[in-house]
Design a protein that fits this description.
By secondary structure, this protein is mainly alpha-helical. The chain has eight helices and no strands.
Length: 189
């Protein structure tokens, strides 16, 4: 609750803003009926909001994955399923660029919801490459038991990645491509 002096100052700034006089030093907190585009950062899922942790973890993971696609492309080239047309390197670079784009979309609040949705789809799309990696490692005569065990155990890892992306989507505020509910038609007090 504001003190009478604080309330009086806020009222003066609001009057000045409404009349177009002078600078407004304090922005009034919007009501819940206003759209998400005018809401305060904390109500839009600001970076300090703990509920956005899944989005930030995935953004970091996707940035690392994107980098690895360009730093170690031969690893990724080998796991591109051979049934796909074209060169494996093209797919490696395309998925690297996609990982960077998804990382950026997850990091930015206004694109976080669509970015999280596309990240979940990305993790599903790379399942054939994960299966190819498993086939490669299991058929490698030089691979030890530990590598072959890891080849099998890494496959289910896609499930928590997809669920984490869906969690990030669920926690994201409406953004550019996914608007929230329409503003209320009743007047704001």
């Amino acid at each position: 609750m504001l003190s009478s002096a604080g309330g009086r100052i806020l009222e003066e700034h609001q009057r000045a803003a409404a009349s177009g006089e002078g600078k407004v030093l304090v922005r009034p907190r919007p009501s819940t009926a206003e759209s998400a585009d005018t809401a305060w950062p904390s109500s839009r899922g600001a970076a300090t909001d703990a509920s956005q942790g899944a989005a930030f973890r995935l953004a970091a993971l996707m940035a690392v994955a994107g980098t690895l696609h360009f730093v170690q492309p031969s690893f990724f080239d080998r796991i591109i399923p051979p049934v796909l047309p074209g060169r494996a390197r093209t797919y490696t670079h395309a998925f690297g660029v996609a990982a960077y784009a998804l990382s950026a979309a997850l990091a930015y609040p206004r694109t976080r919801r669509v970015g999280a949705t596309l990240t979940a789809a990305f993790y599903v799309a790379v399942v054939p490459a994960k299966v190819q990696l498993t086939v490669n490692w299991l058929s490698d005569e030089n691979a030890g038991a530990a590598k072959k065990t890891l080849a099998i155990l890494h496959l289910p890892w896609q499930v928590p990645l997809v669920t984490e992306a869906l969690k990030a989507r669920r926690n994201a505020a409406p953004g550019i491509l996914t608007p929230g509910p329409a503003p209320s038609s009743r007047p704001v007090p």
